[in-house]
Amino acid sequence: MEFKSLGNIETSFRQIRLYAFVFAIVCVVVSGYSVYASYSFAKEQREKIYVLDQGKSLMLALSQDASRNRPVEAREHVRRFHELFFTIAPDKDAIEKNMERAFVLCDKSAFNYYKDLAEKGYYNRAISGNVNQRIEVDSIHCNFNTIAVR
Fold it and tell me: Fewest 10 Å CB contacts: which of 58, 76, 101, 103?
């Protein structure tokens, strides 16, 4: 490509400088728009969450304020802890795996309770007696009006 208007060096230098400046401005505008578009897309995607229904089906849900979901999350947390802690299979490894998962959801008092049961031979008797213990939580009542301070 040959520039026909580049007759002398002074005008050609001004013209090339103008083209470079316009190109830089266009690059900045395109970059700024792409950053803005990516942030708005990410914000839009953060409002969508995917929910597993009992580990089976995946469905799309819209997120809300976290404080509105706290009671539901707390009840599910308590329900899951009790299922893991009190469901016993006649296998030592299965009991230990369930207890490890349950201890993530609780404080030291549940660990102390587990140690007391283990010292009394509760788990050994369940294993030797080939006992399957399964708990099914039918209702959970939580008091969200008080705050426990330790």
Answer: 58
pLDDT digits (tens, 9 = 90+) for 61-100: 666 666 777 788 888 888 999 999 988 888 889 889 999 9
C-alpha to C-alpha distances, 45 to 42, 58, 84, nearest whole angstrom? 5, 16, 33
Compute how many other C-beta atoms are within 10 angstroms of the C-beta atom of residue 126.
19
Q: Which of 59, 49, 132 is nearest to 98 (CA)?
A: 132
pTM over 0.90: no
Three-class secondary structure assignment of the chain: CCCCCCCCHHHHHHHHHHHHHHHHHHHHHHHHHHHHHHHHHHHHHHCEEEEEECCCEEEEEECCCHHHHHHHHHHHHHHHHHHHHHCECCCHHHHHHHHHHHHCCCCHHHHHHHHHHHHCCHHHHHHHCCCCECCCCCCCCCCCCCCCCC
Report how far residue 150's alpha carbon sits from residue 74's, in angstroms, rounded to the nearest whole number.
19
